[in-house]
């Protein structure tokens, strides 16, 4: 199948590579051209701009950082006008509910399919094809793209025909991840203050009561104080908690702990830690406790 792929960052590069290895004809574009070079060496065509990435393709994937990037690369670039009628856009970004609704309307107006397919997983998982992908869209569009998600996913989780549903699941899931990290950050600061190293404490917790992937992955990073290079930056975590708060406010859903996370992440950004992995919330907790 002829596929376009926009956005070749830490996540998108691995995803695009897996589509290429699955035998698809791939056209790629990234705002920073150097990111496309490894895929070009593997046989991908590099588009001159975002619009060109959509010309003649049957399915367009995009993996972009935030609402602003999606607006620029998808809504403002002309790529939707370049896509052939009946083509489907699969959007893997974590987006606001308001923008998802705008995107659905823009695609329907042009006779295009739109599928929301945000992902859970870090860059190494994306490269290995083991992502959990939450997907929602109209039946015809979903049928066209589900086979293309197989090379990318350990599991695909359908959420119905409204793309907003997939994005809300992703937003809520990222809130839960942040809450888990913050709980480990505060708890390990407590044990450290009483002479128990974070590594010892988290080894007990992740080997017994909290033996789950999120706790094991982020607990390991906290134990080793391994916050760079980031698998998921503080700045992105701050963005996603903001999305959770906005979605909650729209439906009058109280989320008091989201406000706590917002302030903690903002404190990290103010301390110049925007590019650290969000497991570095443990740095904030330690700093508040005056632990070196």
Structure described in brief:
The protein is 53% helix and 13% strand.
Structure notes:
With 292 residues, the chain is of the alpha/beta class. Helix content is 53%, strand content 13%. It has helices at 12-21, 37-41, 50-53, 67-75, 79-82, 97-109, 123-128, 139-149, 163-193, 198-206, 213-224, 234-250, 256-270, 281-288; strands spanning 2-6, 25-29, 45-46, 59-62, 88-91, 113-116, 119-120, 131-137, 153-158. Strands 1, 2, 3, 4, 5, 6, 7, 8 and 9 form a 9-stranded mixed sheet that branches. The longest helix has 31 residues, at 163-193. The chain is globular. 46% of the residues are buried.
> How would you describe the shape?
globular
Report the order of strands and helices. EHEHEHEHHEHEEHEHEHHHHHH
Counting helices, strands and paired strands, the structural category is alpha/beta
* Largest sheet properties: 9 strands, mixed
Task: Tell me the β content.
Answer: 5-15%
CA distance, first residue to last residue = 54 Å
Q: Secondary-structure blueprint of this entry?
A:
Layout: E1 2-6, H1 12-21, E2 25-29, H2 37-41, E3 45-46, H3 50-53, E4 59-62, H4 67-75, H5 79-82, E5 88-91, H6 97-109, E6 113-116, E7 119-120, H7 123-128, E8 131-137, H8 139-149, E9 153-158, H9 163-193, H10 198-206, H11 213-224, H12 234-250, H13 256-270, H14 281-288
Parallel strand pairs: 1-2, 1-4, 2-3, 4-5, 5-6, 8-9
Antiparallel strand pairs: 6-8, 7-8
Helix pairs in contact: 6-9, 9-10, 9-11, 9-12, 9-14, 10-11, 12-13
